[in-house]
Amino acid sequence: MPDRVTFAAGAQKELAPGVPVRLDRVRTPQYGRHLEAFVPGQVFAHPRGFTFQPAAMLDFARVFMQCNPLYLNAQYAKAHGFPGFPASPQMVFNVVLSLGVQNDSEKAIANLGYYGAQFLRPVFAGDTLRAMTRVMDRHERGSGKPGIVRIRTLGVNQRDEVVLQYERKIMVAPDLGPAAAPAAAGPEEARAAFPWVDEGSVDLGDLRLHAIDRSLTGRDTYFEDFEAGDIIAHANGRTITEEHLALTYKVGNTHPLHFDRVYSKGLSGAMSGEPIVFGGLVFAWLEGLASRDATENAVWEIGFTEGYHTQPAVAGDTVAAVSRVLGAEAVAGVAGGGLGVVTFQLVGVKGISAKAAVETYGADLFVKENDKKDRGKEKIPAKIFEIERRLLVKRRPRRG
Amino acid sequence: MPDRVTFAAGAQKELAPGVPVRLDRVRTPQYGRHLEAFVPGQVFAHPRGFTFQPAAMLDFARVFMQCNPLYLNAQYAKAHGFPGFPASPQMVFNVVLSLGVQNDSEKAIANLGYYGAQFLRPVFAGDTLRAMTRVMDRHERGSGKPGIVRIRTLGVNQRDEVVLQYERKIMVAPDLGPAAAPAAAGPEEARAAFPWVDEGSVDLGDLRLHAIDRSLTGRDTYFEDFEAGDIIAHANGRTITEEHLALTYKVGNTHPLHFDRVYSKGLSGAMSGEPIVFGGLVFAWLEGLASRDATENAVWEIGFTEGYHTQPAVAGDTVAAVSRVLGAEAVAGVAGGGLGVVTFQLVGVKGISAKAAVETYGADLFVKENDKKDRGKEKIPAKIFEIERRLLVKRRPRRG
Amino acid sequence: MPDRVTFAAGAQKELAPGVPVRLDRVRTPQYGRHLEAFVPGQVFAHPRGFTFQPAAMLDFARVFMQCNPLYLNAQYAKAHGFPGFPASPQMVFNVVLSLGVQNDSEKAIANLGYYGAQFLRPVFAGDTLRAMTRVMDRHERGSGKPGIVRIRTLGVNQRDEVVLQYERKIMVAPDLGPAAAPAAAGPEEARAAFPWVDEGSVDLGDLRLHAIDRSLTGRDTYFEDFEAGDIIAHANGRTITEEHLALTYKVGNTHPLHFDRVYSKGLSGAMSGEPIVFGGLVFAWLEGLASRDATENAVWEIGFTEGYHTQPAVAGDTVAAVSRVLGAEAVAGVAGGGLGVVTFQLVGVKGISAKAAVETYGADLFVKENDKKDRGKEKIPAKIFEIERRLLVKRRPRRG
Asked: Least CA distance to A188: which residue of chain B?
């Protein structure tokens, strides 16, 4: 039952000089969790939520150089049968990942990898997402050492439909200090309700894949243009500027490592330095750089896995992208056979062009950095990211 | 009576080489006012106005790390009974303050303080604000010295309802040069119409304070969690980048000190240097940094007073915030007793974390810089801002 | 006929280690064209398109300091009879120009000039533009030397109405390497359909030029305030920051010279250096800096010609603007005689204030840089841009 809220505050009087300063009453709320605070089975509901507005969706797509007109052009999206242009999956991932930072990783040392991400439903203008995380397991490695926590996170819209779910491993330090601030960061629900979708299925609604204006995309990025083994060195790089601090805020990430130089320079030893670019943004820029040659004619990003940030990036770094086709399979029985699934390995480098990276490092560029030790290979300092991603791509339209 | 405006311009011919250059016809329009041009009683109507679009409102809230979901999440705002999410009061203040710069302070030397600000009505998407200022008094201090002008500014929406009003003191230099450009900056109305609200009352419409998704905000930021004397050192800082130049433009501020390095480096003596961050933006960042621990569960910012920018900030500075609770009073007879008024002293520092600032400066951090001389205390160079602000905060919901 | 697209992808398996790396299958798609690939008569349909959202339109207007409330204030625009606020012509130009980069100029060495631009229809929120280019002629200058290509580009909205058309000359290098990537950038249509408007006519719909709130604009920027010969040195400058990299992306420009430092530093000789600010953005900033004194009371930008970027700008440069009135002619028979056409020469400088530029360079500031050699004059290194632009400006309203 609503109340009419009118409130006459009266003139505001100055109070500060008359209120004694109580240095015994200082509190310093902390966010994120130390290792011990991750209990398998726990479910955290993440704070705030995020409403998607069309201008912000287009803005994200453009700042990250998305070339698929599905995310840039309302006419094109509607011609396909979407009610409007969807948010780019990169934006959805960045937002859901960021919603979870306060509970999951604001105290994490390192993001160890993304696994099994699935984009299940498009996000349209006006949708509001919220997110939640379940702790799957916690692996401690002995006294005082950081441990590894495996979590699952999902984002739901205002109709409680899951739009994205993924798994993540993070490296978290144990709580070495006196029991200062308890895990008060955000509410937690011990209830088991965590609607992870076990047999994930993308639902894009009713789509039309014909009668599309083909002049808006390239001719060489249809399903038939990708064969397992193909390697595409994407022409342009992107110099990341200090814009990344504000962009971190714009997607809602609260980790000071990305926007607080007093914090980042205060870290110990080798970790001390400039604010690190939030990995979600790096992934988005690399995906954008690849999009013109790889995903212009995709109708959906099904998901990704085995994603690793292998070196950090800071403002001033120029990133470039290479894509390697890992597989291409036609899809029967959907949309009249007009779609196929293409799997890409996306590799990001910094300080070097994509073409030069392939020429310089050759096959080693595509060996997982985590596997290099076992295979007696050196890590590549210029390599910053790798991931495998699957997309639903249109087949080349027949003439007429 | 509308006219159909169609106009055939014809091909555009090159004209410049044929028009003699008339160096005797150079004009250099000036904006802002010198001290003499502020006449008590005068009312200025400020130019341009500002239309609030939802994506820009969300964008402002996020760039300034607002954590109250009221400004981030349409579902949450509507659940409270708002027609949509309101613009953050910080954005409203920045816009109204900026609308007045061209008439009021584009020639000002210093912004001496904000007083008695009251946010009277929410601003929603689609609202257009315009602003006006009345000169209250002018205090001259003798030949050639800058004087102090006290002004009142208010912002009205398209229904002529006052959404914000406040008082400001600015330091303005006298006109030392020959009578160059008269006060031609913008129209002025000598009419007395200036709808300042004497008995200000916040009107938020019909609100529901129950049945809200509590998982979207923290558990420790309800009315009952704040007691006069509490001091909260907010965990994260924010490194301000050169983004502030574009942000100054985005809120409509025309003062070159903030975005014109030729101008800022051309100032005399100690004032010469890098563009200074517009104070309204600094206030917004500090308010955002405080929001996660202080205002997540607020339903409205009633207003603020005694606000001073005590040191400038430039790109590269990292700002941090400390809040001190000055008072907490339950509000009877409104919204079923579900609200209380909390008054905070918000202090901003640069180059140091909030926690370190409290540890280093202790009680002196909370003594007004303007009072320090009289009290035989040194000013704190790291302290950049202080203000007292009042908010309407929700009481903790009862279980069930 | 739409199909319901639901697709069960199944769990994503890691594939990369099992797919052999095929270094013989590397491709490096190229964009833009070498000189030989411009064939007179060819028509290119440009990719992607661009949907205009209101928040992005307001954001562009503000970031580029547009002072005409037509582009900032929905109430003001509607009072004139527009259905809403139109996109600033600067934004429309930047978007259409950028849409063409991939086909036209991503390999260009230099942008030699803009000619005969005409803004024929307003662009409103919700409009989607796409663009196309016809090659007019190609002038080769001998073996291995860059040649000059003249192209016409037009932007159409979703109703296939032309909103903007202009001509451009670009300097393009011949293809000196082995015939690597063919002109695969985007589709090309050999069909003659290119709806260039020969007798261009602005159609603004039904406008009301009376009953406008005059307090929102200045008093000195009506048609009667401009006389051929007047020179206006605009007070404020604008320091361009690294924001320009993201802004290049936001308008859709894919040329790495503007956002890829590995690319820009890899250029040979004197061209090597920092990313250059995209000229369209420079023009927009200069136009914005001029707007408060020149175009506040304009109702439309008819078009521009003879536009040249005479020196590059990089992040850190402070740009300033000077306007010279080349002509002012009343328009009979339209809108009850309430409009006039004013033609301005807009000159941009860097590193110096507008006033100082006029004092330092005098009449030479307004001599076209391209004409200086013939006239035995030195070029001005501080001069970055010049153009002639025509606007439809309101006459001063009669009292009462």
From this structure: B215
Which of B1, B3, B241 is the best mutation test for C, with the most CBs of C within 10 A? B3
Spell out the residues 6+ positions from residue C274 whose beta carbon is closer than 8 angstroms to its own: C261, C264, C265, C314, C315
Cα–Cα distance, B137 to B155 (Å, whole number): 20
B335 CB within 8 Å of a chain A CB: yes
The closest of C249, C240, C345 to C282, measured between CA atoms, is: C240
- CA distance to A94, A116, A147, B93, B250, per residue, from A150 (Å): 19, 12, 10, 44, 42
Q: Do C334 and B6 touch (CB under 8 A)?
A: yes
**Per-residue pLDDT tens over the stretch A358-373:** 999 999 999 999 999 9
Residue A126's nearest CA partner among C295, B138, B75 is: B75
Those of residues 371-390 in C touching chain A at CB distance below 8 A are none
| pLDDT, tens only, B316-358 | 999 999 999 999 999 887 777 889 999 999 999 999 999 999 9
Give B105→chain A minimum CA distance, Å: 25
Q: Tell me the C-alpha distance between C171 and C151, whole Å.
A: 11
Q: How far apart are CA B258 and CA B248, in angstroms?
A: 7
CB-nearest partner of A216 from C2, C49, C54? C49
How far, in Å, CA of B243 to CA of A243, rounded? Answer: 7
Cα-Cα-Cα-Cα torsion A327, A331, A337, A341, nearest 10 degrees, comes to -40
Q: How far apart are CA A280 and CA A247, in angstroms?
A: 10
What's the pTM? Answer: 0.94
B73 with A128: Cβ contact below 8 A: yes
For residue A178, pLDDT over 90 is answered with no
Sorted by sequence, the CB contacts under 8 Å of residue B387 that are 6+ apart come out as B114, B283, B304, B305, B306, B307, B308, B345, B346
Residue in C323, C313, C333 with CA at minimum distance from that of residue C391: C323
pLDDT digits (tens, 9 = 90+) for C91-113: 999 999 999 888 888 788 888 99
Ramachandran class of C243: left when φ > 0, alpha when ψ lies in -120 to 50, beta otherwise: alpha
Residue C208 has a pLDDT of 87
The residue behind tokens 């007045």 is: B100
Distance CA A313, CA A242 (A): 11
Closest Cα in chain C to A238: C260
Per-residue CA distances from C322 to B232, C61, C287 (Å): 51, 20, 10
CA distances from B254 to A98, A166, B107, B265 (A): 34, 46, 11, 17
Cβ contacts of A20 on chain B, cutoff 8 Å:
229
Query: What are residue C86's phi and psi, to 5 degrees?
Result: -80, 160
B-facing residues of C in 69-128 (CB < 8 A) are: 69, 72-76, 81, 85, 116, 118
Structure tokens belonging to residue A43:
């479910």
Structure tokens at B392: 């309407």
Helix H or strand E segment including B361:
helix B354-361
Burial class (CB in 10 A: 0-12, 13-18, 19+), A224: middle
Q: Which residue has the tokens 């800058």?
A: B146
Q: How many CB pairs under 8 A join A and C?
A: 243
